[in-house]
């Protein structure tokens, strides 16, 4: 093998990174070749000198005033917090968002009252399609609230019991029909055979349950016991 | 203060006090580490000291999360390294550096000293020519003779990776120096 090839092995040999077979081959050659022997020694010297120079580059001490200077700068700083501000703010923000989310869920859940359908009417306002009559149970006895003037209503579906009591949502324009139905039911003039089923539930028997109507908490009373809900329906 | 008051006020006061005490302990030996890491990049003691000051100040601000010694030193090394690289990139600092270097050249030097400086300059250039990853392990290995395990802990990489990077760094630097410093013709 030529010396030029061995020359390329010098650095790796000086670093001790040459495979054992090549290392022994190079040493054997260097023992016979003066030039390669010098090169190998030079490579080792160079590596040693390089390590020393790098060490010299990073040697040194900060000046004696370093600590006092640092202390002076630290003194001007606010004390370090045990729990830094950024994570604390992030946690508070996340908690706030979570609380708002659950509050929204709660409110939406309680507001999901089922409004009577648009075609639900009695007497003077006939429903658009005349649907099959559904047999219903006889009306239950009046509740004390109904007897004292509160509105008692029967809906075509089971209304949800909210946190504040029973509520019935009536679409705009159908309040008169709903009130008429209410009066008719309370007076015993209407029974189940006179009511029509909903268009979408034509094949299903209606389920009747007596409900209590109570004014919404905090709602401003309107004439005839009406109040507008955000979804455009009227509560009474 | 009676015992009951002490027990009530104790946790808050003692936690703050222990935080300050732990930082004081870090102040004893860590500035040198930050200084040397910065010096490995900047080669200028005054600038390296500025960087070390800034790194320590940032360490103070974040000390609540860094009080674990195993985390503090690697964090400090990384911060000092980054700050030093930023400082070096600053044009104003580079100009100052060049001015200082030109002033140095004007001084008469003995031949041996001049040769040694020349060699150091070549070594510094070869070091600068390394990639950032290789340079960091090379500098850390040179600081206080850290072994590969200690360098691995400081950089946060496996020891085997440190060994590989160190070998590659030395090989690249040696090859570069061999070409520049002592061109020996092959036989």
Reconstruct the topology from this structure.
The complex is a heterodimer of chains A (236) and B (187).
Chain A: H1 3-7, H2 10-15, H3 20-30, H4 34-57, H5 66-75, H6 85-111, H7 144-147, E1 152-153, E2 161-162, E3 165-166, E4 169-170, H8 175-187, E5 211-212, E6 227-228, E7 234-235
Antiparallel strand pairs in A: 1-5, 2-3, 4-7, 6-7
Chain B: H1 3-42, H2 45-61, H3 63-66, H4 69-89, H5 91-106, H6 111-129, H7 132-142, H8 148-155, H9 159-180
Helix pairs in contact in B: 1-2, 1-4, 2-4, 6-9, 7-8, 7-9, 8-9
Concise summary:
Chain A is mostly helical and 236 residues long. In chain A, 42% of the residues lie in helices and 6% in strands.
What do these coordinates show?
The complex is a heterodimer of chains A (236) and B (187). By secondary structure, chain A is mostly helical. Among the domains of chain A are: 3-51, no CATH class; 144-235, no CATH class. Chain A is 42% helix and 6% strand. Residues 117-165 and 224-236 of chain A have low confidence and may be disordered. Mean pLDDT of chain B is 78; it is low at 1-13 and 183-187. Chain B has helices at 3-42, 45-61, 63-66, 69-89, 91-106, 111-129, 132-142, 148-155, 159-180. Chain B is 84% helix and 0% strand. With 187 residues, chain B is mainly alpha-helical. Chains A and B meet through helix 1, helix 2, helix 4 and helix 5 of A and helix 1, helix 2, helix 3, helix 6 and helix 7 of B.
Major β-sheet annotation of chain B: none
Distance between the termini of chain B: 87 Å
Strand content of chain B: under 5%
Assign an overall shape of chain A: elongated
**How far apart are the termini of chain A?**
106 Å
User: Whole-number radius of gyration of chain A?
Assistant: 46 Å
The helix/strand order of chain B is HHHHHHHHH
The ordered H/E elements of chain A are HHHHHHHEEEEHEEE
Helical stretch count of chain A? 8
Largest interface: A-B, 46 and 51 residues
Low-pLDDT ranges of chain A:
117-165, 224-236
How helix-rich are the residues of chain B, as a percent range?
over 70%
Count of individual helical segments of chain B: 9
Quaternary form: heterodimer
Q: Indicate the structural class of chain B.
A: mainly alpha
* Number of individual domains of chain B: 2
Q: In what range is the share of β-strand residues of chain A?
A: 5-15%
């Amino acid at each position: 093998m030529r010396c030029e090839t061995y020359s390329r092995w010098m650095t790796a040999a000086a670093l001790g990174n040459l495979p054992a077979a090549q290392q022994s081959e190079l040493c054997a050659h260097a023992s016979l070749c003066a030039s390669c022997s010098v090169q190998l020694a030079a490579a080792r010297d160079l590596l040693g000198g390089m390590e020393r120079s790098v060490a010299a580059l990073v040697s040194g001490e900060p000046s004696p005033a370093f600590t006092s200077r640092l202390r002076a700068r630290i003194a001007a700083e606010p004390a370090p917090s045990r729990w830094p501000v950024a994570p604390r703010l992030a946690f508070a923000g996340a908690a706030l968002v979570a609380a708002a989310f659950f509050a929204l869920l709660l409110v939406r859940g309680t507001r999901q009252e089922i409004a009577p359908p648009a075609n639900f009417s009695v007497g003077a306002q006939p429903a658009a399609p005349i649907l099959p009559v559904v047999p219903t149970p006889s009306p239950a006895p009046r509740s004390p609230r109904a007897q004292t003037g509160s509105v008692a209503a029967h809906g075509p579906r089971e209304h949800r019991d909210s946190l504040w009591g029973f509520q019935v949502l009536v679409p705009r324009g159908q309040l008169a029909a709903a009130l008429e139905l209410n009066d008719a039911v309370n007076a015993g003039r209407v029974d189940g055979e006179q009511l029509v089923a909903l268009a979408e539930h034509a094949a299903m028997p209606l389920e009747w349950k007596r409900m209590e109507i109570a004014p919404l908490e905090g709602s401003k009373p309107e004439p005839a016991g009406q109040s507008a809900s955000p979804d455009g329906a009227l509560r009474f | 203060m009676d015992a009951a008051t002490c027990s009530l006020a104790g946790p808050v006061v003692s936690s703050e006090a222990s935080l300050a005490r732990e930082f004081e302990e870090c102040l004893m030996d860590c500035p040198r580490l930050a200084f040397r890491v910065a010096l490995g990049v900047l080669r200028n003691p005054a600038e390296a000291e500025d960087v070390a000051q800034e790194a320590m100040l940032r360490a103070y601000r974040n000390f609540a999360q860094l009080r674990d010694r195993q985390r503090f030193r690697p964090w400090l090394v990384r911060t000092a390294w980054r700050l030093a690289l930023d400082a070096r990139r600053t044009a104003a600092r580079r100009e100052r550096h060049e001015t200082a270097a030109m002033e140095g050249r004007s001084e008469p030097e003995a031949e041996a000293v001049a040769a040694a400086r020349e060699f150091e300059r070549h070594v510094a250039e070869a070091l600068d020519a390394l990639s950032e990853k290789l340079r960091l392990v090379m500098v850390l290995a040179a600081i206080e003779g850290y072994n590969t395990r200690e360098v691995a802990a400081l950089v946060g990489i496996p020891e085997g990776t440190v060994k590989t990077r160190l070998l590659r760094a030395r090989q690249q630097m040696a090859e570069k120096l061999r070409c520049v410093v002592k061109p020996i013709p092959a036989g």
